[in-house]
Amino acid sequence: MKSSRAGTTENISVSMPADLISELRNRTGRRGLSGYITEAVRHQLAMDGLGEIVASHEEEHGELTEQEVEDARRELFGEGKAQDAERGAA
Q1: Which of 7, 8, 25, 53 is the most buried (most CB within 10 A)?
Q2: Dihedral sign, Cα of residue 72, residue 73, residue 77, residue 79
Q3: Segments of the chain assigned E as strands
Q4: What is the pLDDT of residue 71?
C-alpha cells in the first residue's frame, strides 16, 4: 500500500471489457483512470447507501409517495436540477 493525499491506497487488479477501458482512457488519459474509477465507485457506494435508506424507510412506513420523492429531489439537487432529474428518469 502507498500513501496519497486522499489516504492510503492499494493497487488492485480489475477485469473490464476492452471497449470500456478504451473509452475510459479516451476520456481520462492514462493518468486519470484511477481517479475516475475511484469517483465512480464512491458514487455507486453512495447510491447503494441511499437505496438501503429508502428500503429501510419503506419497510417501516410503506412506499414513498410521489410528493416525498419530489421533495427529496429538491433537497438533494435544488429546484432546477430536480426537474432535470425527473425528466431523465422518465
Answers
A1: 25
A2: negative
A3: 2-4, 7-9
A4: 94
Rounded-to-integer distance, Cα 88 and Cα 51, Å? 18
Q: Which residue has the cell 493525499?
A: 5
Nearest alpha carbon to residue 54 among 46, 63, 45: 63
| Grid cell in block for residue 74 | 429538491
Residue type, 79: E
Query: How do residues 51-71 score in pLDDT, each as one tens digit?
Result: 999 999 999 999 999 999 999
CB-CB contact of 82 with 75 (8 Å): no
| Alpha carbon distance 46, 76 (integer Å) | 13
Pair 28, 35: CB distance under 8 Å: yes
All three cell numbers of 72, joined, read 427529496
